[in-house]
Design brief:
This protein has 2 domains: 2-100, no CATH class; 107-186. Helices cover 80% and strands 0% of the residues. The protein is built from 7 helices and no strands. The protein has helices at 2-27, 36-39, 47-61, 67-86, 91-95, 108-185, 191-211. Helix 1 packs across helix 4, helix 1 packs across helix 6 (108-185) and helix 3 (47-61) packs antiparallel against helix 4 (67-86). The longest helix is centred in the C-terminal third of the chain and has 78 residues, at 108-185.
């Protein structure tokens, strides 16, 4: 007896998750699950072949590392299996029969739960986006500050370069004056002229000695 109750409870809990996921998709305006032609691709693949491919796809997702992802994958597998089951002869007619006064409608509390879940998910996504926006704004402020610091450093370097240019010009003037004084000390000759004259005298003495 306990085993049967546990099985029934497991089925009920699992079915609740299936209904919740289906209701969520319904709120996203997803439809066509009970339309055999809606499952067929342009290549003419049969509806059950498409559904089996979907089942295999979500079975692979059930091998993930996150428990929540694995749980949702198994629910998706069950829902796609139900879609295939609902298209079988006899089942299709029963599923799509006109609803009577005792028709089953989604429970109000389940709808509220789904809506709350969606609102929570959207709020979390908004928080993530706001966090990213804040991070980007901070990064922009840091870049602007870094740009200002670089501009200040560039101004300082330009000022230093101007100082070095002035020093260079002053040294050039001083060097020119020193050369002028050297030229004057050489008897009015330039350094080059003095060196050429000395070289000429050396050359003359060498010839005179060789003539002796």
């Amino acid at each position: 007896m306990d085993e049967r109750l546990k099985l029934e409870r497991a089925v009920d809990l699992f079915a609740e998750e299936m209904k919740t996921k289906l209701l969520k998709k319904m709120l996203e305006r997803r439809s066509g699950w009970n339309d055999p032609n809606g499952w067929c691709s342009s290549r003419g693949v049969a509806a059950h072949a498409v559904i089996r491919a979907k089942v295999r796809q979500h079975l692979n997702k059930s091998l993930g590392t996150e428990v929540e992802d694995r749980s949702e994958a198994w629910v998706d597998v069950a829902n796609f299996a139900m879609f295939g089951w609902a298209l079988l002869p006899g089942k299709f007619e029963a599923v799509n029969a006109p609803l009577g006064p005792d028709r089953v409608v989604p429970k109000q509390d389940r709808l509220v739960t789904v809506l709350r879940t969606e609102i929570t998910r959207l709020l979390r996504a908004l928080d993530v986006r706001n966090s990213r926006t804040s991070a980007l704004s901070q990064r922009i402020e840091d870049l602007v500050e870094e740009k200002e610091q670089l501009a200040e450093e560039a101004d300082e370097l330009e000022h230093t370069l101007d100082e070095e240019r002035r020093k260079h010009d002053a040294m050039s003037i001083e060097l020119a004056e020193m050369r002028k004084r050297v030229d004057e000390a050489e008897g009015g000759l330039t350094i080059r002229e003095a060196m050429e004259e000395r070289a000429f005298h050396v050359h003359v003495r060498v010839k005179e000695k060789s003539g002796e």
